[in-house]
Amino acid sequence: MKNTAALRANTGKSRLFALGGFLGFASMLLLAAQSAFAAGPEANEDSGVFEVEKVRDDVSVILGGNGNGGHAGVVEFDDGLVLIDSMMEASRDRLLNTLREISKKPVKALINTHDHPDHIGSDAYLQGQGALVVASSSAEFEDEFAWQGIGENGKLPQYGDSIALYVVGSHSPSDLFVFLPESNVLFVGDTLSNAWYPANFHRGIRGQVEAMDLALNLIDEQSVVVPGHGFLTDRQGVQAYRESCLAWSARIMQLHHQGLQLADIIKDPELEKIRWKFNPRLVDRDRFDHFHGRLVENTIKAETAAAEEG
C-alpha cells in the first residue's frame, strides 16, 4: 500500500447515482428497505441523540437504523474528530447532538464508505463547517461542495498510520474501506450487513468475495468490524458472511439456470435455509420476508450483468 492517498479536488453538482439502469434501481431499493429496517437500536427521541457503542478508547460507533441511515464512526484525535459516514440528512440534528456528547472537539474530516444518501446526509453541511470530506474518486454527490477523491489504496497524510483507506467495489462503485490499524477497527460500509440480504449490486458475487477477502486480510481475531447496517461483528462474522454470500448466489443462479421462475426460486427449501443466515437475530421478519423475492431478482440481474461484463 502506498504511503499517501491519491487525492483530487472535486467541486460541482452531479447526479446522486452514476450507476444506471438496474444498479441504480437496486441501490435505491436497498436504501429504502435497509434504512427503514430495524437493524439497530432506536434513537433516544427524548434527548435527541443516538445510541453510541464505544469500541475503543478513541473510537465510537453511532448506531443508525430505523430510517436514520447507516452507522457512523467517530475517531478522536488530539485536534479534532474524524467522522466515518454522516447518516441521513433528516438525522443531522441528532447526529450533531450525539457528536457533541462524544466530544466537544470539531469534526476535522469526514470519510465516506460510499455515496448513497443514507451515509452522506451531512457531508455538505460539515464541509461548510470546515471539515475535509473524503470519498472514493468514483463517488458522485447531488449537493455542490468541495471534496477530495481517493483513487487508490493509501493513507491520509495528516493522520499518519492511524487511518488506511482501501478502494473496493461490491455494493457500489464508490465503496471504500476505512481501517484503523492502531485501534484494530475496520469500517466496511454496505459491503456487509448482518441483518439484511447481500447487496453486492456492483460486480456481483465476484466483487463481494473480493471485498470480504480484503477485509479478512486486514483483520485478526481481536478486530472490530463495523458494517453499514446491522450489528458490529468480528473476523468470524466476516468469514461466515462470505460463505453465506457464496451459498446464496450459487443456489439462486443454479436454480435460475435450471429454468425456474422467480416464484419457484423463492420457495426453494435450500435457499430458505441460506437466507436466514443473513438475519440470525430475526430482526423485523415481516420486512425481511417482504423483500426476499426482490433481492433474489436483484441477485440474478447483478450476476447476469457481471457475467456479461466479464
How does this model look, in words?
- There is one protein chain.
- The strands form 2 sheets. Strands 1-8-7-6-5-4-3-2 form an 8-stranded mixed beta sheet. A 5-stranded mixed beta sheet has the order 9-10-11-12-13, covered by helices on one side.
- β6, α3 (about 125-130) and β7 (about 130-135) form a beta-alpha-beta unit.
- About 45% of the residues are buried.
- The protein has helices at about 20-35, 90-100, 125-130, 205-220, 235-255, 260-265, 270-275, 285-290, 290-310, and strands at about 5-10, 50-55, 60, 70-75, 80-85, 105-110, 130-135, 145-150, 155, 165, 175-180, 185-195, 225-230.
- The protein has 9 helices and 13 strands.
- By secondary structure, it is an alpha/beta fold.
- The protein has one domain (about 5-310): Ribonuclease Z/Hydroxyacylglutathione hydrolase-like (Metallo-beta-lactamase, Chain A, 4-Layer Sandwich), CATH 3.60.15.10.
- The chain is about 35% helix and about 20% strand.
